[in-house]
């Protein structure tokens, strides 16, 4: 579900603020009923009309990108740096990233124009697992993995339980490769978790997102998701939500 004014803006009716004005003036209907409140949310199956004319809503489209380094997880940047949508020059739909990866972090990133699915994937109550591989400073010990798995306090709040394992260690270079699976999405969470246990991240890549992995995708490459993959993500989110509510 998305806010009505956001759906209108996304369809090209007007800016979000102008769309809000149209709603307040009673010029917008949802499923045949005039809506004048700004808090209304609509889904893909809802019919939205402006001045009696149904808005042209884009068909939902979904992509998996292997985000390269030095790329912003956004649709624009005030410093004119490369953004992820620059990697989709021939896609006419107005897509946007689901969540974000840091400028120097690589890996799995979903882009779509489906706001309903995007919110499901980002909301912590849906518990979507994301697996990262981090190259960190120092030799990571087993007790440190236990701390990461049980949850540690980062910026005054304890992280949720995670899964962690050592992939490899290089004593000569004093670095360890660690796989970490989390379902939260706080800002710079993985980097902050490793920093909190004394192992700053040198390099970070997100290997999986829910049921998706990067098989066959080099940095900067992307592919369109198949319908069964989108359904898998929806089902996973709903199953996790139901489990957490029991």
Automatic annotation (TrEMBL):
Enzyme class at the top of the EC tree: isomerase
GO molecular function list: isomerase activity
Protein keywords: Isomerase, RNA-binding
NCBIfam families (UniProt xref): pseudouridine synthase
Family: Belongs to the pseudouridine synthase RsuA family.
PANTHER family: PSEUDOURIDINE SYNTHASE FAMILY PROTEIN-RELATED, RNA-BINDING S4 DOMAIN-CONTAINING PROTEIN
Identification of the protein by name: Pseudouridine synthase
